[in-house]
Amino acid sequence: MIDEQFRFEVLDWIASDPDPVTAALLSKWLTENNEIELRKSFNGFLEFGTAGLRGPVRPGPSGMNRAVVGRTAAGIAAFLISRGLSKVIIGRDARHGSLEFAQESAEIFSGAGLEVYLLPRELPTPVLAFAVNELKMDCGIMVTASHNPAIDNGYKVYLGGNIDGVHYRGSQIIAPVDADISKRISSVTLPSPRGKTLEVIGEEIVNKYVASCAGNLREVIPQKIIYTAMHGVGTKTLVSVFDRAKFTTPILVTEQSEPNPDFPTVAFPNPEEPGAIDLAIKLATKENADLVIANDPDADRCAIAAKDSAGNWRMLRGDEFGTLLGHYISKNQNVKEQTFATTIVSSSALKKIATNAGANFAETLTGFKWLSKIENLVFGYEEAIGYCVDPLSVNDKDGISAALKIAQINSELLSRGSNIFSYLEEIWAEIGYHRSEQLSIRVSEISVIGKILSALTLNPPADFAGLKVTEFEDLSKSLLPTQGLRIRCGESVRVIIRPSGTEPKLKTYIEVVGESDSADALVAKIKTEFAQLFASYS
C-alpha cells in the first residue's frame, strides 16, 4: 500500500495540475496502488539548468508535462520581469507534447504581462535562434529534446541582449542566469495567471531565415545528395534553403522525411548512433549518390557520409567534419581578427588551422552555449556534430546552414575531380593527421557514472595501451571547471572522460596525432582498454 504522506503529495500535485489527462493518469495509478509508476513520476523535480529542461514525457514533477512546463515558464517570466525584459518568442518541434507545452508557456507568459510571439508551425531550432535576433526578442523558448529518445521532450532557453555582462545575441543561457531562473521556478505560487494575448508570427520569418542560409553560396556543378531528417522537422526548411540557393534538390529518405515523434525506423534519433543512417546509405548506394546529409530531429546538428577511396560509404566523425569546414572557411573567407573556436573535448586540429590562417583561436567548455559567447566568432564547432558556419545570422549550432555549406564544398570538389576524403587528406598533409574517436557508454543508473569517475580520480592509471600517462587532470579543478577527467600521454595522445550533459551516458573522447596507420591502431587499442575498464566498474 502507498503510505499516506506520499499519497497526500500526489493528491496535492493532482489538485494543481492544469492538464486533466495527466491528472487522471495519476489518479488512476493511485486507485490501482501503482507505486512503481508513481515513484517514477515523483522522483524529484525535473532539474532546470543551462540546458533548460529535458526528460521523459510523463505526469508529476519528474517528467515533462504541462504542470512542470507551466511552473518553468512562470519562473522564466519572473526572471525576465526582474530584468526589465518583455518580449518572448516560442518555437517547437514535432515531439509528443511540443504543441501543448508551447501553448502552455505562451499563456503563462501572457498572463505575466509579457509580449508573446509564436513561430508559425513546427520548425528547426536554428529558426528560433535566428528569430530571437532578427525580431529583437529578449527571450526565446524552443520546445524540443533534440536527438534524445522518443519518450523525451525538453525546453531550451535563449536570451537576446546583454545580461550579467554576457552578450547573448540569441544564444542559450549560462550561469548565473540558470541558477536565478531555477530559484524563481521553485518559488512559483500556483495557480499562475494565464493570458490569451498571443501573436503568431507569419511565414516571413522562416523566409528570412531561408534567405540568410542561402546567402551567396553557389553550386558549381549539379550533384546527387541524399537527405534524411531522422523523422524530425528539418525536411521542409532544408529543401527550401537548397531551392533558394538554386542547388540541386536533395533526394529524400522518404521513410524518415516527415515528422514522426515515435521515430519508428531508428533506436535513437541521432545520426551518430549505430544504424541511424543505414536507410540513407542504402538509398545512396542505390542512387549512386555523391553525398549523404543527415540532421537530428530539431535540425541543429548535421552529419555527412561520403564514399572513401575504396568506394565504401562512411560517415565522417564530428571532428573530421568540423576540421573540413574550418579549413575551407579559413581559405575562402577573410578571417583576420576573427576567431575559430571549439570545445575542450574536440580535436586540436582547428587550433592549427586558425594559427596557419593568422586568425585567433578559443577553446571552451562543452556545449554551444559557451561557443556562442566567443566574440568575433567566424566558425565554431563541437565534435557532437554541432556546427556554426554563419554566427552573425544564427549564434548557435545550425544543421541547415552547415548542410548547405558542405553541399557547396562537395560541388567544388566534384568539379575538380576530387572528393570529401581526398580533401581531408590534403588537410592532414598540411597540419598532420589527427585521429579522434568517441566511446559512449549508456547507463541505466546515472550513479554508475559518478562511481566510475570517482574510482579513476582516486586511482589514476599510470599507463594504458602501452603508453605512460604524463598528465592526469581533474577538470573540475581546471581553469575551465567542468565534471570530467583529462589524461595525456605526451604531446600526441589525449583522452577526456566526462558525463553527457543531456543523456545518461559516460563519454570518452580520444585523440591521437601521428602517422595514420599507427594512430588508427592506437585509437582502437585505447578504446578497447577503456571499454573494458568501464565494464569492470559497472
Content-based structural category: alpha/beta
Whole-number tally of structural domains: 3
Uncertain runs with pLDDT below 50, 5 residues or more? Answer: none
Rg, nearest Å: 23 Å
Instruction: Provide the helix percentage.
Output: 25-40%
Total strand count, please?
25
Mean pLDDT: 95
How would the global form be characterised? globular
CATH topology of the largest domain: Alpha-D-Glucose-1,6-Bisphosphate, Chain A, domain 3
CATH H-level name of the largest domain... which superfamily?
A: Alpha-D-Glucose-1,6-Bisphosphate, subunit A, domain 3
User: How would you characterize the largest beta sheet?
Assistant: 7 strands, mixed
Distance between the termini: 33 Å
Q: DSSP strand (E) fraction?
A: 15-25%
Supply the CATH architecture of the largest domain: 3-Layer(aba) Sandwich
Output the number of helix runs.
18
Which CATH top level class of the largest domain fits? Alpha Beta
What does this structure look like?
- 39% of the residues lie in helices and 21% in strands.
- The protein is α/β, with parallel strands linked by helices.
- It folds into 3 domains: 44-202, Alpha-D-Glucose-1,6-Bisphosphate, Chain A, domain 3 (3-Layer(aba) Sandwich), CATH 3.40.120; 213-431, Alpha-D-Glucose-1,6-Bisphosphate, Chain A, domain 3; 434-537, TATA-Binding Protein (2-Layer Sandwich), CATH 3.30.310.
- The strands form 6 sheets. Strands 1, 2, 3, 4, 5, 8 and 9 form a 7-stranded mixed beta sheet that branches.
- Helix 9 packs across helix 15.
- The two termini are 33 Å apart.
- The mean pLDDT is 95.
